[in-house]
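Follow-up to my post from last week.
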Amino acid sequence: MLRQIRRGVFETNSSSTHSITMCLKKDYKKWEIGEMFLHDDVLVTKEEAIEKLKNNKWFNERNPNFDFTNEEELNEALASYEYRTSEQYWDDEYLETFEDTYTTPSGEVVVAFGKYGHD
Amino acid sequence: MNLLHEYKNGNYTIKLFDDGTKIRETEEDKFVSSFPENIDIKISDKCDGGCSFCHENSTLDGDIADFNYEFLYSLRPGTELAIGGGNVFDNPKLSHFLKWCKHRGIVANITVNQKHITSQFYDYDGKRHYYRNINTSRIFNWIDNGEVHGVGISYDGNSEELDKIFIDDEDNYAEEYKKNVVIHVINGVHSYEDIMKLANKNYKLLILGYKDLRRGHKYLAENEKLIKQNQQDIYNNIHSIIKSFTVVSFDNLAIEQLNIRRLFTTKQWDEFYMGDDGSFTMYIDLVKGEFAKNSTSLNRHKLLDTIEEMFEIVKSE
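User reply:
Got it. Predicted complex:
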């Protein structure tokens, strides 16, 4: 006989999480080779990411003398401010991932990708 | 502990008790369900909480659900609904829906944020007096009427406020409702100290894993050292936590993050672990009129007329 027991608590947990990003395949390829970063579900060029970081009040307050020419520190800062490379994005031990491609009526190839999971 | 429901589902039987205890039993070598035991059901996309670590997308101007769906009439007595949002209190038809659930033998549970039940106070006669938040009164009333059974409260770290509701109330009225309540905490957002402020007061605890996504990701980026330290403290002191609460439960993400498996023998674990999503549970978004395996699945479908039809689809995915 099999038995499973949930002790002393009703089912009240309903929260969850998911994300989806859609972009042109050419931008997706640039992201894969490190020429673009994912930020708030949008792909941005490295130059745009650096510009945004330079204008980030929170970052400037904490890093008044930041050396933007130091590639390693710059990449670390970008990652911690949610500018993520493809490698960083997919490195997630908790959430499931998905990726799909489709062609729009005008012939553009679009990639949809993201992560999801639950609690 | 009194039996609330006993029913058959697929090849097994379920007993559900009034403290939330659930027992599944089968003579076969695995549990095969034919309808969901639990449904995570969203009734509001509206919320004014603004929690910095939140990964839901409910907003101040979010929509609320209607309840005029045919499938609701196919729900079996004993089925648990985890009713959530958004802020469930923002749905004006909630009370009516809860009455309807009771009438059909459906076990309604709700999850609320502590912010929405915090007590108010007034000063009188040189003393500060607290009076119960209207939402708390509504919850107690629903429990009294058997319209709500489980109440999840998302803890905001202010244990004194919770104690005011459940322990220090002037008429000692609320203590009896604690058996229906489970306090939700997030591994790392809440520290070991935050959690232990609730210790040894007969609270039930649900520890949720920390999700590094959306607002949760930003919050982690800005508070990584603190969150990691909090998680390590909870990991190191999990035995103390378990000993200090009436019940401690975990979601699957917290089970991984805290390696809860280490605390059990294989036999205990097989009995304790209640299974993955889609085996016994499913998700319904009443706001959008959709269903899926869980709330994060992108493979969503328009609601059908019976729960069995929808669950078949969920199980086949």
